[in-house]
Amino acid sequence: MSNLRDHLRQRALDCATHGKTPWTGTICCARCKKPYQTEDSKAQHYAPAECSCGVTLMPASKQSKKFSARAICSTCFVGLTGTRPGKA
Predict the structure, then answer these.
(1) What is the pLDDT of residue 24?
(2) Which of 68, 80, 69 is nearest to 17 (CA)?
(3) Which of 6, 12, 68, 73 would bridge with 55, disulfide CB 3.0–4.6 Å?
(4) How many Å from the N-terminal Cα to the C-terminal Cα in the chain?
């Protein structure tokens, strides 16, 4: 998981609603669109290895090709969950 997070931290996201925003650890499942955060394992919406819809959410290793996590804008994440990323 940290490999994906480290890779994405080095770039900004192009959000259709909010424009270019820095990525702050927010993702969603490509299959069911459920939002998760990757910053704090004790906070709400922490990303598990497998999404509740049953697909592999996070890559098991840097070489993993099959995973469903997609980076999303943190402002969109707040709108979807009502919580800020990494906040309990």
Answers:
(1) 86
(2) 80
(3) 68
(4) 20
